[in-house]
Amino acid sequence: MSRIVGVSAALPPNSYAQTEITATIAPMITQDASKQALLRRMHEGSRVERRHLVQPIERYLDGQSFTTTNGIFIEAATDLAEEALAAALVQAGIAADEVDFVLFTSVTGVSAPSIDALLVPRLGLRPDVKRVPMFGLGCVAGAAGIARLDDYLLGHPSGVAVLVSVELCSLTVQRGDDSTANLVASGLFGDGAAAVVMVGAERAADRADHGFDVVAARSALYPDTRHVLGFNPGETGFRIVLTAGVADVVDEHFGSDMTRFLADHGSTVGDIARWIAHPGGPRVLDAFSDALNLPPGSLDASWRSLARVGNLSSASVLHVLADSIRDAPPSGGELCALFALGPGVSAELVLLRWSGDPE
User: Fold this and answer.
1) Within its chain, how far is the Cα of 27 from the centroid?
2) Same domain (yes/no): 182, 54
3) Model confidence at 234, in pLDDT bands (50, 70, 90)?
4) Domain count, the chain
């Protein structure tokens, strides 16, 4: 089995309380008093207490074209990607020139050459490193990225593969758009990055340390749900598509999908010691918990991440993973389920086991 040997998070330096963000951007989004009141209620109900923004908050009041915001994305995303991956490599004890495969994901900006290409000279990655930039998976891409690294490493058991996620969601908030989706998104999403370093089974066997081994992964794409979640690119950038149907998809599909997935690998919901859920928002986290009938506190790591930094799209589940390992070090043999939802609507389920003998 391939193994996660490093996971690191990075955040922009500009950090603001949710109340300050709400007060600043409300008039930017709408001049209608009733809509501003609705925005404030939505922000208060998001359970987000603080968020990091790629720009100082006053910059968002300026009229910025998509050309401008995407230029900001390219520069800042490269910096944050470098920070996250450098830290994850140090944690893993692996040099940059040992990396064989890079998977980069983002849904909040575009670049050609892609951000992963810009990282090669910055970090000293090899010129022949294999690179795959990934766009469009959105919030599910953190979990999907781990699964795709595992796919690669199954065929390259002595290899090193890395996942880099950068999401600068604040750059996608639309001025003058008082749609429900924009009001919700303006109070929920933050900016951040994360990186994961994984090694193949042969290389993992030679290491003295421990980490989460990837037991299995499963993808799902739910029919007739393309309207539920996503982005519509346009003249002003990426306009979010976000409906209450996300929780409905969880209610209809998630419990049975997770139960079958675990059963196919000899496990049950009760066997899982650690749940790493994408913190999509209060309704989504509650739906996850209800679908699996989880005991109280099972998703605390995800709730804490939501409060501290908001929903970071693809980077969020990786932040939760890093926080969980740091705050509550796993024990040998411990099973973990990591999962996320994204546009499609799609889901990615990953079963992990901490290496080493049970204590």
Assistant:
1) 29
2) yes
3) confident
4) 2
Q: Would you say 351 and 262 are in contact if contact means Cβ atoms under 8 Å apart?
A: yes
Tell the burial category of 35 from Cβ atoms under 10 Å away from its Cβ (0-12, 13-18, 19+): middle
Q: What is the largest CA-CA distance in the chain?
A: 63
What is residue 346's three-state secondary structure?
strand
Provide the whole-model pTM.
0.95
> What backbone phi and psi angles, to 5 degrees, belong to 266?
70, 25
Q: How far apart are alpha carbons 203 and 226 in whole angstroms?
A: 40
Catalytic residues: 139
Four-residue CA torsion sign, 303, 305, 307, 311: negative
Residues β-bridged to residue 52: 15
Phi, psi of 129 (to 5 degrees): -65, 140
Provide the CATH number for the domain around residue 218: 3.40.47.10
Range of the domain at 20: 3-206
